[in-house]
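S.,

Sequence below, as promised.
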Amino acid sequence: MPVVLDAIDQAFRCAAAEVRTPPTHFYLNLIETCNLRCRHCITDAPEKTRRGTGRAMSPEVLDAIGPHLRHACYVGLTHAGEPISSPLLEPLLERLAWARDGQPTIVHVLTNGLTLTKDRFASLTSLGVRSWSFSIDGMSSATHDLVRIGSRIDRLTGRIRTLAAVRTASFPGVRMGVAWVMMTANLHEVEALIRFAHEAGLDWVKLEEIYPGNVFARQEGSIDVTRLRDSVARAMDLGQALGVRVLDHTRDVTVWRCRLDDDPQMSAYAHLDDFVNRFEINPCRLPYEVVCIEPNGDVKPVQFERPVAGNLLTQDLLSIWNSPGCRRLRRLARQRRLCGDGPATCARSVEPDAW
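The prediction came back faster than expected:
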């Protein structure tokens, strides 16, 4: 694997559009249905679940992904539906562990926690999950339960406390945190969230922007900027006092890894974002690393929102990785980055065992 990472680093530094190296960071959409009906859902999972139109990754697509998992130092299960409900979750983790053969690997899972029992948590963590993110959008039934319909905050916080205790006792190297969408309804409860994270022994809290994808989200996102900034600032101050890392993801921050030594605020944000996601995020390097795979085998570079570059059921991944769309994205990254066509000046990304 170090040889592959060296080759990727060289291709990135030379600003190559066509590469001979594979992707190493895999975001997989295992399932598009969900057992909750979140009113601000950005992937329309509740409606897809109701209509029966939500897709689930097939064993054939997992088979097509399989040969490439030996290069997968990072796997993110954070998109679309509830990954814990996917019947392919355990088979994926088992195949990943076999393919990686002991090499450092990070699996990051975003879950609503509804069906994540103590035994299932221990089993999945034993199979390789190294980073858990739990979705909470309020600290009272008047907020969380009404936004995330089907979830009860009293049960969820109790479950997270239990799982955090299991983590501390049996899996001390695993990280756990909370993803919280900032909205009008829950601004007044953010400090209660920070206290809960501290008491439960969680590692981080991520305060996210709300995506205005439907009427509810647009209404809840109409927050006075001063009020939002004050709420975030209080949460971050409390987090610092209690030893809980709080990531403010409600504002856009441009990160240049080559400029971190010159910009303390950018550096603090970048390193905290790395900690929460559990990999070193270099935006300029992502077109050489990150691939997103849909349930039907469609492949997209860097983000699920990008156009389809090819399909694993009919094409080899390396061929797709050099498709016009993927090459175009690398050229755009080259035009955007501060070092341009010249050799990249940022430090080489650290290896997965340092994430």
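The chain has a mean pLDDT of 96.

Coffee later?
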